[in-house]
Amino acid sequence: MNNSKTAWFKTFYNQIRSLLTLSRGGKERFTEKLFLSISLLPVLLIVLLVVALWLRTQPILETQSIWSLLLGQTWHPIKSQFGFLPFIAGTMWVTIVAMVFAVPVCLLSAIYLSEYARASMRMIMKPLLDLLAAIPSVVYGVWGMLAIVPWVQNTFAPFMNKCFSYIPFFAVNNPTGFGIMAGGLVLAVMVAPFIIAITYEVLQAVPTGLRQASLAVGATQWETIKYIVMRQSLPGVIAGVVLGASRALGETMAVLMVVGNVAHMPTSIFDAAYPLPALIANNYGEMLTIPLYDAALMGAALILLLVVLVFNILSTLILRRIVRRSRR
Amino acid sequence: MDSHVQTIDLNAFYGNTAALKNVNLEFPKRQITVIMGPSGCGKTTLLKTINRFLELTDGTRISGKVLIDGENIYAPNVDVTEIRKKAGLLAQRPYPLPMSIYDNVAYGLRIHNMKRGHDLDNAVEHHLREAGLWDEVKDRLRSPATGLSIGQQQRLCLARGLAVEPEMLLGDEPTSALDPISAQRIEQRLLDLKNEYTIVLVTHILRQAKRLADYVVFMYLGEVVECGPAQQVFENPQQERTRAYLEGQF
Ligand SMILES: Nc1ncnc2c1ncn2[C@@H]1O[C@H](COP(=O)(O)OP(=O)(O)O)[C@@H](O)[C@H]1O
Ligand SMILES: [Mg+2]
Q: What kind of fold does domain A69-326 have according to CATH?
């Protein structure tokens, strides 16, 4: 046994020993440390995940710069061309369409639930929203394929084509109905319960006294909501929307089933798209014989993870501040 | 006595529990009426019936009448915002609106389209002076109201209430969250303002009541036990319970 090994063994032995003979205070401290390390585990996992993805992305970063990867528009793995831009754009288009549909509806629902609804109404609606949030995303995907895609194809797209085709984003070049519009609609429905729940909590955190301060000078309830409640809760509402968007960004299954999965730059909300999560889910494990394909997909996963992380951390910080303020 | 607000057989309920029982009171014009009584006796509830705040709570109900200048404010076609505009509110703790000092005072004026432009500036200044806050805030009217001390915030709330030109002020223990000096300032404002406004003040501080009251209402378990001119009630209470309360027995 060499020296360092014995030294290590001695400290280890001493620690075990001192643990067994610990005083109550010492045990208390030990338990505290134990729980601390257990609760730090998820943080550690995330860090490990980022590091692992980063390392597995390295092979492709050795052949091209990060910018040519992020901004490249051609996806041709056989020719070693890995441009992520179509996928990033696809993700953004689908998410933005989803948010455009979801946010106004969710805001109004949350305002109704928080400000107007009676307690009995809330008692019915809250569990219903939780239920909606718990539906597996593949079910939403099936619903999207059976209901939304045909509706977009037969009703919505023809209508928009007839009335608004001169607006570039609304041109219909895709006859199938599988595309950004269908993906956005399905996503909007999926993230809605989530956004409503957060916005509701944020609105509830506005002190009653503040509403009454406004009502006391003769403001109507709507004026109070518009000028006081909304203003006070704006940061929280934004945080809730960002959290909802980060869900939409990362959502895979339902979107994959309705979005068309074509790797090109979208130019209209009716085009097919290929969001990052769909790219990873469709191809990982299948195409890995192609050189660098694996590294490219890891890069895609890394981008997704980082964006979602940043969104989540920012909005969680804001929301936590709101909760703390409302408890004061 | 020229009564400004009058309650007639007023009952108020939270669900099925009565919080006010057959309250018949008159609040004289441009005087300070202090409502006293142990906690939970219905003082806040009584105030809330005067500015129609009680209906903001689910499951509340009222019977009887509240008259302001002889008009029943619970009559079917009454505009509730007009009632609330007439009765400024000073709550138990100040709630500055999430906007600048200036905008806090201008809030009601803008809502009711009462003033704009230069007139608005003048009105804001006038009411901040009325509330005794002008000198402290005149150089930072555009900064957020939440930056003020809690005592200043309460005076800002006073200015905000005064801005919509109410006829009366309702104070629900308005100094209970404040330090003694800030509390004294609010008291002084109320004394100055009673020449122009009918003031109804809830307080649990006996000394404050003695300093401010022209009239006193003593309540117990939702009922009015005794009411009358301050001197009479304080020096020669007619009811045993009033006497006990004044002697600090509960
Ligand atoms: N929101 C409410 N729900 C049910 N009961 C209430 C509510 N607010 C007040 N009460 C009851 O009404 C009675 C009077 O309350 P309140 O007017 O607040 O008393 P005070 O202001 O004199 O302390 C109390 O018994 C209290 O428990
Ligand atoms: Mg009270």
A: MetI-like fold (1.10.3720)
Sheet with B17-28, side-by-side order of all strands:
B17-28, B3-14, B60-68, B71-72
Task: Output the CA–CA distances (angstroms, integers) from residue B181 to A245, B37, B137, B188, B209, in the order listed.
Answer: 50, 24, 18, 11, 17
Atom of ligand 1 nearest to the CA of B37: 22
Best residue among B10, B13, B14 to mutate for probing ligand 1's pocket (most ligand atoms within 8 Å of CB) is: B14
Taking the domains of chain A in order of start, what are their residue ranges?
2-62, 69-326
pLDDT for B108-129, tens place per residue? Answer: 999 999 988 899 999 999 999 9
CA proximity to A201, closest of A309, A327, A104 = A327
pTM of the model: 0.87
Which has the closest alpha carbon to A270: A192, A191, A185? A185
Domain annotation for chain B: domains and CATH numbers:
3-97+169-246 (3.40.50.300)
B57 CB within 6 A, ligand 1: yes
What pLDDT digit, counting tens, does each position of B180-238 carry?
999 999 999 999 999 999 999 999 899 999 999 999 999 999 999 999 999 999 999 99
Q: Whose CA is nearest to atom 25 of ligand 1?
A: B40
